[in-house]
Design goal:
Helix 4 runs antiparallel to helix 5. A six-stranded mixed β-sheet has the order 5-6-7-3-8-9, with helices on both faces. A three-stranded antiparallel β-sheet has the order 2-1-4, with no helix packed on it. The chain has two domains: 200 residues, P-loop containing nucleotide triphosphate hydrolases (Rossmann fold); 64 residues, no CATH class. It has eight helices and twelve strands. The protein is globular. By secondary structure, the protein is an alpha/beta fold. It starts with a strand and ends with a helix.
């Protein structure tokens, strides 16, 4: 689906965001893209959508170079940005203007999603709340039936019930032909949704591993005291929340926020486990 090979990119030659980044993404997966502010999450997504261009290296998305912005590729990419503008029209006019760009657009599915999100169809888009607007473009993006779905901070502006609704809809929207990439700094919003974690740090990929692989190699638990077997620890009210090698094949739930902090703090210690 996506092949990134020795990608070098930055908005200035003197401040690169990515140095020789390489990564492969496959269909049938929901990837969670994590990283500190400024790590390049949005820029990576824009590279994949052909909105910015690499300084060197190659990007292959479904056999196309996204920088060429070919219609045959663009109709298979749904990109939902963090910041967006919706015009002063109602939903039906928005569909009439934009749906024809996607030959597989599913109007019935879009209607179902709008009902699920409880969007007032008679209201102009510009007059909706930020959360309602976000739901409209998520519904539109999924209804395009695009094979590559790219979402930049999709849960920003959603309340807690809407975030749960979003996770439910995204899980049901996943197919074996689709690749979904969700970038967020609200790591808990991706709990029980993604199957693979990608973490960016220091101009490159700090971690790319499936949830299954992470929980097979690491265990996340609470302990009263720390010892040398623990890779990373955070104080809690009753002791410490820790990440440690899963020596005894214990079952534990992935704590996304704890993993995120652990990788940032102890990247060198984790590298041998996931090389």
């Amino acid at each position: 689906m996506v092949n990134i090979n020795n990608l070098n990119f930055g908005y200035s030659k003197h401040k690169p965001l990515f140095k020789n980044m390489s990564m492969r993404l496959s269909n049938g997966h929901i990837y969670g893209l994590l990283g500190k502010n400024g790590a390049g999450k949005s820029s990576l997504l824009k590279n994949l959508a052909g909105l910015v261009y690499a300084q060197s290296g190659t990007l292959d998305v479904m056999g196309f170079n996204p920088a060429k912005r070919q219609p045959a590729l663009l109709e298979q990419i749904c990109f939902i940005p963090e910041e967006f503008y919706l015009p002063s029209v109602k939903i039906d006019a928005y569909l009439k203007a934009n749906a024809p760009f996607y030959k597989n657009f599913d109007h019935s599915y879009f209607t179902d999603l709008i009902k699920e999100f409880d969007i007032p169809v008679g209201q102009k888009l510009i007059n909706m709340s930020y959360g309602q607007k976000k739901k409209v473009i998520i519904a539109f993006g999924l209804a395009t039936q695009a094979k590559l779905v790219i979402m930049d901070e999709p849960t920003n502006g959603l309340d807690i019930p809407s975030k749960a609704q979003f996770r439910k809809i995204m899980a049901s929207a996943m197919t074996d032909e689709r690749c979904i990439i969700i970038s967020t700094h609200q790591v808990r919003d991706l709990d029980n949704l993604i199957d693979t974690v990608i973490m960016l740090d220091e101009n490159d990929v700090a971690l790319k591993a499936s949830v299954e692989e992470i929980t097979a190699k690491l265990t996340f638990k609470k302990v009263k005291e720390i010892d040398d077997s623990i890779i990373y620890a955070e104080p809690s009210l009753s002791g410490y929340n820790v990440v440690m090698p899963n020596y005894h094949q214990e079952e534990s739930k992935l704590d996304m926020e704890l993993l995120f902090n652990a990788i940032l703090a102890e990247k060198i210690k984790f590298k041998p486990l996931f090389s």
